[in-house]
Structure formats: structure tokens, C-alpha cells
Design a protein that fits this description.
This protein has 444 residues and is α+β, with helices and mostly antiparallel strands. It contains 14 helices and seven strands. The chain folds into two domains: 184 residues, Four Helix Bundle (Hemerythrin (Met), subunit A), CATH 1.20.120.1730; 188 residues, Alpha-Beta Plaits.
């Protein structure tokens, strides 16, 4: 059984418990939310509406007495407004709390009361003309309505308390259930983790030994774990990695100490790997023009500064404009190589040319820099005027996979570099010639 299956099996129960935990939590929260919504949208507004209804009834009685005393139209208008407000408020009470018995009683009493007030409060004169017995009757009915409205508030308040208690009970029950489920899940997780850790400790120890052997350079001592699970796969991968690291060590033993860039063996291996795996490739051969004259005039120390500065310019160009897997190599002397993709070489080459032309002037003495040339001797010993250093780049691409041999690209890049050196100034030249199968076959 693979480790994945072991983990899935072992943690299956834990997942079920967590799922139950989640469902119960959401269910309890939803119930509490529904209860709280009813309280907020029904009970609280209903309680407030009942209070407003009582205020309207009291205001109605106040303004009826005021009409009787002052006999003015303003008081009568306020009386009418209070009566209309009472009727509107009651309709809202019925819409929200029609299920409450006290609301039904209040509605029935209000109907009778409305029939009496519709005639009694039709005009200021009708209010003034009311007999004392009629006014007493209206006042008593009004008091009964107020009492019923108070009953509504009491009933709503009691219902609200019941809902709050129910919500609290749901919350308390959810707390204990979730506590038990959570504790169970944690216990199972600890148990599974312990058993799993104990079962794989030996494999981990063997893997640690393998990695230590690799770090110490003992690649041939790395052994694999003979199992069919993921640890066996990892162990075999580590063994393969050890072989590749050993090979890379051999490649990078040829690293140039001046620039710390890999040399010819690494360049050839990189180019071959890219072509064999079908990765579209551009090979850039880079050479300095008139470097020997600079070396002869200023000495090898200043010459080394030029080489290091050139390496830095190339690094920066590839880092800023190239791909993550691009390669920079130092063949030796003033010859460099960049391996990149066909989409990236143009920007890299332009950056190298521009950067070199700006940097190289700083490495000449002021006298030579101002004159724009230096005087050197040819092989016959005659003094000749040489221009300041420039950089030449020959670029060859694999032309969408038509090239399969590194030797073809290397040879053509070298030819292009020599052609670039014949051109005045810093330039890069790209190979536009077509390849053919005979050339591949010959070089193979």
C-alpha cells in the first residue's frame, strides 16, 4: 500500500468527524440566525408598534377633550390624525403578529371602537355635541383597547424571552457537541500522527543517510530503499540525483577561476542536452576585438579587469532579459558563450553591446580614451594605431529543431563571430543560412 493510501485511510475518520463538526456548526448557527431574525423583524417591531398604538389612543383622548374645551379646528385635525395613526398602526400589528391571540382580541375591539368614533368624530361640532354618557363609553372602550395593547406587548415580550432561551439552549448544546467532536478529532489526529511517524521513521533515517552521503561527496555509497511506496520512489530519485550531481561536479571542475563561469565541457553538455530534448536554442559566441593590444599596453592585471567586467555585463544582460535556465560560459581568454532561446537572444545581445561600449571607455587611460585609439606593435614589431576595444557576437539558432548536433551550431557560431569581427564597432550578427539534412548527417 502506498503512503498516500495509508494517509487517506488513516485520516478518513478524521475527515468524517470534521465534516460532521462543520455540518452541525452550520446547522446550529442557522437555527440561531433564524430565531434572531424573527426577534429582530417581528417581536421587536411588534413591541414598538403596540407602544405606538397606546400613544395614539392616549393622544386621541387628549385631543377630543381639547376640541371640547377650545372648540378649534386645529385640535380636531390632530384628533383625526391620531385616529388615522391608530388605524394604520393596528394594521401593521396585525400584519406582523396576527398569530398572537391578544392581537386578534385587539383587532375585534378596535372594529367596534372605530364604528363609534366614525360618527362621533366626524366634525368638530359632532365632538362638541357628544353626550357625557357617550364620552364615558368611548373612554372606557379606549381604556380596554389600551389594556389589550399592553397584553400584546406582554405576550410578545414573553414570546421573545422564549426564543432567546431557545437560542441560548441551541448555542449551549452546540458548544458541548462541538467540544466533544473537536476533542475526538484532535485525539484521532494525534494517534494517527504517532503511528504514521513511527512507521516511517526508518525510511526517513535511510533518506537522511543518503542526503548526508551526497553532501559529503560520497556519491557511490548512496543506496536505495527497496519498497514500492513513495519512500522507495524518493530514495531512487535521490540515487539518480547523486549520479547527476557527480556528473555536474565533473563539468564544473573546469570553471574559469577568473570569472567563475563554467568552461568548454559544461558548454558542450548544456548545448547537447537542449538539442536532445527539443528545447529551441540560440547560441551566442562572444569575443573582444583588439583585446591583445590592450593587454600588451596595460598588462595582464588590467586585462583581467576587462574580462571580469565583460563577464559581469553578460551576466546582467542574461539575468534581466533572458530565461531562468539560460547558460553563460567562459571558453577562455576573451571568448564567452551564452545559450538562450531564439526569442531572447536579440535583447541580450543588444544589452551586451550597449553595456560593453559604455564600460570599456572607463578601463582606458584618459589619454588613450580622449584620442580614441592606442598605439601598439604588430607581430613584426612595427607600430600600428589600433582602435579601442569593441565586442563581436555571432548568433546561431536551431531553426525550429532542424539542427540536432552541437558541433554544427558551434562551428557556425564561430564563423559568424569571425564575420562580426570584420565589421567596425561592437555588433552582433545572426546566421540566416538554412540547414540541411546532409549537414546534420555529415557532422553526426
Amino acid at each position: 500500500m502506498t503512503i498516500t493510501k495509508k494517509i487517506l485511510f488513516g485520516y478518513g475518520l478524521l475527515v468524517v468527524l470534521v465534516f460532521i463538526h462543520l455540518i452541525f456548526s452550520l446547522s446550529s448557527i442557522d437555527k440561531m440566525k433564524q430565531i434572531n431574525e424573527v426577534i429582530a423583524k417581528v417581536d421587536n417591531p411588534l413591541h414598538e408598534l403596540a407602544r405606538q398604538f397606546i400613544d395614539n389612543l392616549l393622544g386621541q383622548e387628549y385631543y377630543s377633550e381639547r376640541v371640547l374645551i377650545l372648540k378649534d379646528r386645529d385640535s380636531f385635525d390632530l384628533l383625526q390624525r391620531r385616529t388615522a395613526d391608530s388605524d394604520s398602526t393596528l394594521r401593521q400589528i396585525v400584519a406582523l403578529g396576527g398569530a398572537f391571540p391578544s392581537v386578534r382580541d385587539l383587532t375585534a375591539k378596535w372594529t367596534d371602537f372605530s364604528l363609534l368614533t366614525s360618527g362621533s368624530y366626524s366634525s368638530p361640532e359632532s365632538v362638541i355635541a357628544l353626550a357625557r354618557a357617550q364620552r364615558v363609553l368611548l373612554s372606557e372602550k379606549r381604556k380596554k383597547l389600551i389594556a389589550l395593547a399592553e397584553s400584546v406587548r406582554t405576550e410578545v415580550y414573553a414570546d421573545q424571552n422564549r426564543k432567546i432561551q431557545l437560542s441560548s439552549a441551541i448555542g449551549a448544546r452546540a458548544y458541548w457537541v462541538l467540544l466533544v467532536l473537536g476533542a475526538g478529532a484532535v485525539t484521532i489526529a494525534i494517534l494517527i500522527t504517532y503511528l504514521f511517524a513511527r512507521s516511517i521513521s526508518r525510511s526517513v533515517g535511510l533518506l537522511k543517510l543518503s542526503t548526508r552521503q551526497i553532501s559529503e561527496g560520497r556519491f557511490s555509497e548512496v543506496r536505495t530503499i527497496n519498497s514500492r511506496d513513495e519512500f522507495g520512489d524518493v530514495s531512487r530519485s535521490i540515487a539518480d540525483m547523486a549520479i547527476k550531481i557527480e556528473h555536474l561536479e565533473e563539468l564544473y571542475l573546469a570553471t574559469n577561476p577568473l570569472t567563475m563561469l563554467p568552461g568548454g565541457l559544461a558548454i558542450e553538455d548544456t548545448l547537447k542536452t537542449r538539442l536532445d530534448t527539443g528545447v529551441h536554442t540560440a547560441l551566442c559566441f562572444i569575443d573582444l576585438d583588439n583585446f591583445k593590444v590592450f593587454n600588451d599596453r596595460y598588462g595582464y592585471a588590467r586585462g583581467n579587469e576587462v574580462i571580469q567586467a565583460t563577464a559581469l555585463i553578460i551576466r546582467e544582460a542574461v539575468t534581466d532579459l533572458g530565461n531562468k535556465d539560460d547558460f553563460i560560459g567562459h571558453i577562455g581568454g576573451d571568448d564567452f558563450v551564452v545559450v538562450t532561446s531564439p526569442q531572447k537572444y536579440e535583447g541580450i545581445c543588444k544589452s551586451i553591446v550597449d553595456g560593453f561600449d559604455k564600460k570599456i571607455l572607463q578601463l582606458y587611460d584618459r589619454e588613450d580614451r580622449d584620442r580614441g585609439e592606442i598605439i601598439g606593435k604588430n607581430r613584426q614589431g612595427a607600430e600600428i594605431v589600433f582602435p579601442l576595444m569593441t565586442i563581436s557576437i555571432g548568433v546561431v539558432t536551431d531553426q525550429n529543431g532542424s539542427v540536432r548536433e552541437p558541433l554544427i551550431m558551434s562551428r557556425r557560431a564561430a564563423e559568424l563571430k569571425e564575420h562580426a569581427k570584420s565589421i567596425t564597432g561592437s555588433v552582433f550578427v545572426v546566421d540566416k543560412r538554412r540547414y540541411n539534412e546532409e549537414e546534420n548527417a555529415y557532422d553526426g
